[in-house]
Amino acid sequence: MDPMTFSIIRHRLFRIVDEAVITLKHVSGSAITNEGHDLMVSLYRADGSLLMGGVGFLHHLTSAAEACKSIIRRFAGRIREGDVFLLNDPYTAALHTSDIYLVAPIHFDGRLVAWSACFVHVYDIGAMNPGGFSPQSTDIYTEGFSSPGIKIVDQGEIVQDVIDTMLNMVRSPEMVMLDLRSMIACNNVARERMQALIAKYGAETVDAAGSELIRQSEMLLRARLQELPDGQWQSRQYLDVNGETATVRLTMTKSGDRLVFDFTGSSEQSRHAINCTKWASLGGLFAPLFPLLCYDITWNEGVIRPVEMIAPEGSIVNCTRPAPVSVATVAAIQSVNNAACATIGKMLAASDRYREQATSVWHANHFAIFKFGRNQKGGFSIGILTETFAGAGGARSFGDGVDIGGEIPNPISRMANVETVEGSFPIRYLFRRRMKDSGGPGRWRGGTGGELAVVPHKAPDGGIHYVISGKGARHPMSDGLAGGFPGAPNRYAWAKAQDAQPDAGEPVSWGVFPLMGEDALYVRWNGGGGFGDPLEREPGRVADDVTRGVVSTEAAEAIYGVALGADGTADVAATEALRAGRTRQRSAGRSTP
Amino acid sequence: MSAATSFSPTLVLREGTSGRRIACRACGHDLAAADASWKEHAVLDEQPLGAAGGSVFRTDGDVLLRRFYCPSCGTTLDAETALPGEPFLVDRVMG
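^ Those are the sequences you sent over. The predicted structure of the assembly is below.
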């Protein structure tokens, strides 16, 4: 194939995914989709292998490939042009029941030539707790509607009885239907654009370009791995849930042009819904691998081939049915993601050539807080606090992490406007701001997380309730790198409106709680990990952080060893003396502040 | 000693008469054989995370922040969080 045609087809594939994402956002009515960007669209080859990974939550790229393959197996001989299949069973391929995959075959001249797949976190899935995250579930049977594969559009016609059956099981069925329609529209756009591409260049040419893209990606990743040092790196993640602690342990081995992620030693599967299945773990480790190792390589099947995962069956990272998994995406999957981010970061940092690509762990701890109840317009609302997507950047070898700077596994995640939330729910924000001292200290500081407090406002029932699947309040999860501190942990507190301040209130983390009357909900989310020794941070940067309110004067002195003058600037002589004393203490084996 | 190769941003590998060794990148202090746990030979500073990181790091958990310093120059070589009794995280670079 001539290089020009190949390049055009490659870019058209990118654009097809982009346009399908835009369609998904425009049709969906959920803030979690069109503001939080909790979504994903990708293209797959006729055999279900990943052809073009899209943006959104990257955990889904490999899982949706398995969803395509599962549909191919289950519906062999019954896959027709215009069909759309729904799959959301975590033990088949999905991450949790509320992240629904709609998988659609793409035909040309009557022949199956490709697949498109997308997901959104639907408004509700009928689990025992509203919103999909169901912390009170103790098995998959109470986590809502779950299908290993069902046809919801048959040759272009919606299978209404099937959809009605599903909608009969969920809260706010009209919103769930809108979610389904947004995904059907998304797949329609992907199909039409793919058919137009094939009509112009021919099915064989487009398929050959896809095959070549995959070959190139595999070759490029293997070449990159060859340039990195062989070695073995470890990380671990503590997951606190309802007073218990589970651990995800990872040893990553890089040898030649291969990477092995071994989760041996991780905790046994939990009775709480923090577990994840093997497909979810695979997605979790690829979420940081795609952007950190393949930032200039097309994300497709070729990237998957050099990578192996070992996940012991019956563990928190490869649970067996009927273990509950509804919180997986913010629990075990995210911990797998964090652990992989940490080991990949260490591997990159070990290379003089690739050190600048290394990063400390970004925003490592989602909090899933779903508000639900009667709204100020008399209707019923369910929705996540999208601040969980706001994130915090990890520090790198050359710069600070970005304050409230997003997250690695979703390059387009963001939080909704306060006004959007207040317009949909009978609540008011008391504040939403950067959290002082939350960025992991280091020569380069982790980006800050944030804090917020909300109270009921003009609620017809006196307030609402919320489902919280909060973890990360006992252990920090955004690991630092090269001596950098982790980002500060999360905090969730049930306070009274008049004292909704950082240290007030009763900690809450797991279950359903009221936001009624004088109640307030205080949430603090984690910062990114730091990079390097805090005593090596330029004093002027610390002084600037204090001036901007992202580092306290106490931390400036105690952690960074910076003495500030009366005018707020760094006192260079006093700082040098302070740091020299700390360094002597270290060499002498005494603890330093 | 031959030229150093990278082990991490704070450590290097050197080929010596007794084989490959891990040394402090800042001062060259020899720590351990390349296949040994260099952390055993660093100065360990282990504190409750809340004490090391300030008030926003205080939790009701008993998580520790471990910092590993060069015994010679006091540079921080690495840091990790751990529950009491956890083994050190072990990283190895084979070259």
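The longest helix of chain A spans residues 173-201. DSSP finds 13 helices and 20 strands in chain A.

Shout if you want it in another format.
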